[in-house]
Amino acid sequence: MLVTRYRNPYQTTTRDRFDLFNEFFKQFENEEPKEVFDFTPAVNTREGEDAYYIDVDLPGVKKEDVEISVDKNILTIKGKREVRNEVKEEDYYRIESAYGTFSRSFTLPEKVDVENIEAKSQNGVLEIVIPKLKVIKDSTKKIEIK
């Protein structure tokens, strides 16, 4: 049987207090600012005959605050949301604010035309159109022997 010494959790020593004090201040050392992701926008994807489509719900987000990029066959959508609802009435004043960044990434299929990806924003919905590469089907090519 292992015997351990009872320690009263409500009784602290000077050393315990210093350890707690040091732990508190260590959290502020060498800390770089981190991005805050407040929300993850809803996304709908679908495939058409000639293209893939990605619809992203971004209510209240301006198109200038959204960045779309493709790197190594990964499509990334980043942006920031700054929403401020302010109501001034005779007997009260209210402000509701929502700020933050978001990021969504998607791995693209192999046979897409990355150079001709298009995006448009309308009524709080961002639509990204990713055209498929044209593949010639059922074509027979004769190769001459030299």
What does this structure look like?
With 146 residues, the chain is mainly beta. It has one helix at residues 14-26, and strands at residues 43-47, 51-57, 66-71, 74-88, 93-107, 118-122, 125-131. The N and C termini lie far apart (90 Å).
Structural class, please? mainly beta
Oligomer: single chain
The CATH class designation of the domain at 33-131 is Mainly Beta
Fraction of residues in helix: under 10%
The assigned CATH architecture of the domain at 33-131 is Sandwich
Strand order of the largest sheet: 1-2-7-6
What is the CATH T-level topology of the domain at 33-131?
A: Immunoglobulin-like
Q: What gross morphology would you assign?
A: flat
- Return Rg in Å: 28 Å
Strand proportion, as a percent range, falls in 35-45%
| Distance between the amino and carboxyl termini | 90 Å
Beta strands, count: 7
Q: How would a textbook summarize the main sheet?
A: 4 strands, antiparallel
| Mean pLDDT figure | 80
Helix and strand string, N-terminal first? HEEEEEEE
- Low-pLDDT stretches are none
Number of helices: 1
